[in-house]
Design goal:
15 strands; five-stranded mixed sheet; 445 residues; 3 domains; Rossmann fold
Length: 445
């Protein structure tokens, strides 16, 4: 059963858009579902030579719309027709063509892209681009519950605050989500058969698609080969800080490894998250510091890092691998539930003082504040890095994510500053902002 993604209900017919997402995140399926709003849909798969030939052959640009209609055997009824340019990043000529269209009476355009390129950047340029960028991620936890048809659990999850009686069940399914991940094909397979053993071939199929997308990036062969090797070595380092020099015991220097990681970012397979050293807006990542790696999907991390068994047995992810997998899945939830038209970005904080080890897992912009978010178990008094952030911050609010039930605590930092801690079960990582409003009102009376 294919359900409708949450993002689908946010898409409108007001302006052409390009849907960005890693291979396997469900872009083509979403395009077909969006197409149901039109009289008809014409899909061009630009990974195929036949469809690319429309743009790379001898057809004059002003005749291409007619050629598409003729070749596909479908009439174009103005804005009543959706023309999908699927995998537009595979055909720069198509990107340049659609960017130059001046006819407002033609079909409604939608594109999908599995990586960023010079052409797609031009296509979605904020000032001069013809398309708006839309970002698609793996299933969120909410979508995971929808896909496996856990309706009563889903209804409880959507309540604010979540009812206490639903905590254990939600925790169970969030651990299952963190184990399996959010890649649509894998989740749909699990939903049909409810077993883990049959998922192996799907993880490996998706990684092959990931590796293939790297080869399509406009870069030198050596850099792309290194990027492929690094991807296969990155999973054990998910949600940890890394050094480029000799990363993963690969005998390459910082410059080469850094370029390879940028290719993987371009292919939407991971994100390098650089630390912030100030508790004040605006958020300014310091790219001179060691970054943390956020991989696209936690299920891929667990499978290729070989840690599915301990994940399956865990009752508290914060106690597993020093909270590494908890940070990975929380980061994935924050990214996957952000604004659809804003480039996804995570932030974390470190103290600027030399030799300091203070580090706060995530930062969220809320109103005119930066809210620190720690993914850790323990009493408020033991969250020492959080204390250091609060001492430097102009407000007294913080968030803790753990396996326990929701709670609000008043505490003091080591230096004596009073602060308020919103403790949330980590299955609410994608709903932090929804809970911050009530938390702030309660604290302020």
């Amino acid at each position: 059963m294919t359900f409708e993604r949450i993002l689908l209900h946010q898409l409108t017919k007001s302006h052409p858009f390009c849907l960005f997402g890693a291979r396997g995140t469900g872009k083509t399926t979403l395009a077909k579902q969006f197409g149901s709003r039109f009289n008809n849909i014409i899909n061009l798969d630009l990974q195929t030579a036949a469809d690319r030939k429309i743009f790379t052959g001898s057809i004059p640009p002003d005749e291409i719309i007619k050629a598409i209609s003729f070749i596909k055997g479908k009439e174009i009824h103005g804005k009543g027709t959706l023309l999908v340019l699927d995998d537009i990043c595979s055909c720069p000529e198509a990107t340049r063509w659609v960017t130059g269209i001046k006819d407002n009476n033609g079909p409604f355009f939608m594109a999908t892209a599995s990586f960023h390129s010079k052409e797609t950047n031009m296509l979605t340029d904020p000032l001069h681009g013809a398309f708006s960028p839309i970002f698609l991620h793996p299933f969120s936890f909410e979508e995971f519950l929808m896909a496996i048809e856990e309706q009563t659990t889903l209804e409880a999850f959507r309540e604010v605050p979540v009812p206490v009686y639903a905590h254990e069940k939600l925790l169970h399914f969030f651990h299952l989500y963190a184990l399996i991940g959010g890649m649509p094909e894998i989740v749909n397979e699990y939903s049909k058969y409810r077993h883990l053993s049959g998922l192996k071939k799907y993880y490996e199929k998706i990684e092959e698609a990931f590796l293939q997308s790297v080869t399509e990036i406009d870069s030198g062969k050596k850099s792309k080969d290194l990027a492929r090797e690094i991807l296969q070595n990155t999973y054990p380092f998910a949600a940890t800080r890394i050094r480029f020099n000799h990363f993963g015991n690969i005998n390459r220097g910082s410059r080469e490894v850094g370029q390879a990681f940028r290719i993987l970012e371009q292919a939407l397979l991971l994100q390098l998250v650089y630390p912030v050293t100030s508790p004040l807006l605006p958020l300014k990542p310091d790219k001179s510091r060691f970054p943390r790696v956020q991989v696209t999907d936690c299920g891929m991390v667990n499978y290729f890092a070989g840690i599915q068994k301990p994940m399956f047995q865990s009752q508290d992810m914060n106690a597993l691998f020093r909270g590494q997998i908890a940070r990975q899945v929380v980061g994935q939830e924050i990214l996957g539930t952000g604004k659809m038209d804003t480039p996804p970005q995570l932030n974390f904080w470190i103290r600027s003082k030399a030799q300091s080890t203070a580090e706060v897992d995530f930062l969220l912009k809320y109103e005119d504040m930066i809210i620190p978010v720690e993914v850790k178990s323990g009493e408020p008094g033991r969250l020492r890095s959080l204390h250091q952030f609060i001492d430097a911050a102009p407000h007294p609010f913080a968030v803790q994510l753990h396996a326990s039930k929701l709670g609000i605590h008043q505490a003091q930092t080591i230096k004596g500053k009073k602060f308020y801690l919103l403790s949330l079960p980590y299955f609410l990582a994608g709903k932090i902002r929804e809970h911050l409003g009530g938390f702030k009102r309660l604290v302020e009376g």
